[in-house]
Design goal:
- The protein is an alpha+beta fold.
- Strands 1, 2, 3, 4, 5 and 6 form a 6-stranded mixed beta sheet that branches.
- The longest helix has 17 residues.
Length: 150
């Protein structure tokens, strides 16, 4: 607990910071780190993502950095997954190149993940605080596009 009080994400998460990450979740971290280590290149590709589909497949991707605002690794991954027929992602993680570790998704990625996969788990935190959190818990009081469709 910090001076500001308990971490609201940890408090609402079914996987507490003290619970070890599952082997399936660790496999995602390892897959993303492998892609970052092998394929991240200069400033163009600095973040890798890995996600598991409901059928067990792991899909990986890299961001496409550009000064005009290229897509994050999580968004590239959603397209790559669709291109492979993986439409039911259950967990996702992003990691930085050069051993920077797990990176939490930006606000745009959180919203897109919520709209596409409202039940997805997102791996966040570092070291012993690495945990799986439902995307809805990362975006409280979120606008949910499907709630506003006719």
């Amino acid at each position: 607990m910090s001076a500001a009080g308990p971490d609201p994400v940890s408090a609402s998460c079914p996987h507490s910071a003290s619970a070890p990450l599952s082997a399936a979740h660790q496999e995602l971290v390892d897959a993303a780190e492998d892609v970052a280590r092998r394929f991240a290149r200069a400033d163009e590709h600095t973040v890798a993502a890995a996600a598991r589909n409901a059928d067990g497949r792991i899909v990986t991707a890299l961001n496409a950095y550009h000064f005009t605002g290229g897509p994050c690794a999580e968004l590239v991954l959603i397209g790559a997954a669709a291109g492979q027929g993986a439409y039911d992602l259950t967990a996702i993680v992003a990691v930085g190149d050069r051993g920077r570790g797990v990176i939490a998704p930006c606000g745009r990625c959180r919203q897109v993940l919520l709209d596409y996969f409202p039940g997805i788990e997102v791996l966040v935190g570092r070291g012993p605080d690495l945990r799986a959190v439902r995307v809805r818990d990362l975006l409280p009081e979120a606008y949910v596009q499907s709630d506003h469709q006719n």
